[in-house]
Design brief:
Structural class: mainly alpha
Largest sheet: none
Mean pLDDT: 83
Oligomer: single chain
Order of helices and strands: HHHHHHHHHHH
Helix content: over 70%
Number of helices: 11
Strand content: under 5%
Length: 321
């Protein structure tokens, strides 16, 4: 069973790497969204640390034709393996829950899983390219920035979707109006995607969609919506359209990753806050129900006052003094 899970993780890593490389920006292997890192972190959270060989195999297959040398390939693969393992260890130590039902879980995924663990892969990969001469020294920070934010965005927008799919099930007894609202949200997201990839700089239209999805559909709507708007922004940056027209690579990457980070943060934090509010309301309603039941029982049986204990005459009384 473990071998099958390792093979599945390796296949998913390799397949998502090929998709991510379609939007490469630096040396054919550095992309603003690296889905394999998000898949690796989600796999570790769901199946445990025993599937780490699948991450290594997938990273080896994905970078085999890209590495400038065997030594560089080895270091890049090691960095790609250690980064999700570090994120997993930090999240486990912080008490992270994969259901992302708490605001604490969303913050942990953002700052520990996405922003901290991925520092390893970005530093190892960019440093390796510079040391082997495959990348000019003056392009280190640009490459490092794109590498780090690409891995971080993979965790922010891909991992929540995979964690959501673990417990996904077809909803029951849903009114038709709810299905109509979901279809309307889907259509609005597609329309915003068309606008974002055109020459009109209207990326901010994605934020109302994210808030709508988070408030009405919680993480089930916010996570896919964040993945969609981030993908549209990457396509726009890749083609130099909208707000990405006429700027250098570093400026475009700062703009793109600031937008992607803001959209992912908005989706996760709002969805988690709404879920916490719903849970608090359910607990309050449950407590009120118990209290009402107790009052009803007291009303039926009658409330008999409890008399204070009487002091027996035979008991000796002690007076001070």
């Amino acid at each position: 069973m473990a071998i099958l899970e390792i093979c599945a993780v390796a296949a998913l890593y390799y397949g998502s790497a090929k998709l991510g490389l379609l939007q490469q920006l630096v040396r054919g292997q550095v992309t603003p969204l690296w889905p394999p890192t998000g898949i690796a972190v989600a796999s570790l959270l769901l199946r445990g640390a025993r599937i780490w060989p699948g991450i290594t195999i997938g990273a080896l297959l994905a970078n085999f034709s890209l590495g400038p040398s065997h030594a560089a390939l080895f270091l890049i693969v090691v960095g790609n393996t250690l980064a999700p393992l570090c994120s997993y260890a930090l999240l486990r130590r912080a008490g992270f829950r994969p259901d992302l039902g708490r605001l604490y879980d969303a913050l942990a995924l953002i700052f520990l899983g996405a922003f901290t663990g991925t520092l390893i892969s970005a530093t190892a990969g960019s440093g390796t390219l510079v040391l082997t001469g495959a990348l000019a020294t003056d392009r280190f920070w640009t490459t490092w920035w794109v590498w780090w934010t690409g891995d971080a965005m993979g965790v922010l927008v891909v991992t929540p979707v995979l964690l959501l799919l673990r417990g996904a099930r077809l909803p029951r007894q849903v009114p038709p109006s709810r299905w109509a609202e979901a279809l309307l949200l889907l259509a609005a997201t597609a329309c915003v995607g068309v606008i974002d990839t055109s020459r009109t700089p209207l990326l901010f239209l994605g934020f109302p969609l994210l808030i709508w999805a988070a408030f009405r559909f919680r993480l089930a709507g916010a996570a896919p919506c964040a993945l969609a708007v981030s993908t549209f922004a990457i396509i726009a940056a890749r083609h130099g359209s909208g707000p990405f027209a006429g700027h250098g690579l570093l400026t475009d990457m700062i703009t793109l990753q600031a937008y992607n980070g803001s959209s992912a943060l908005t989706a996760l934090l709002v969805a988690a806050a709404v879920s916490e509010r719903d849970r608090s309301q359910r607990e309050i309603a449950r407590a009120c129900g118990h209290l009402a039941e107790l009052v009803s029982k007291l009303t039926i049986t009658g409330n008999q006052p409890v008399r204070p204990p009487q002091v027996s005459e035979r008991e000796p009384r002690h007076y001070p003094g």
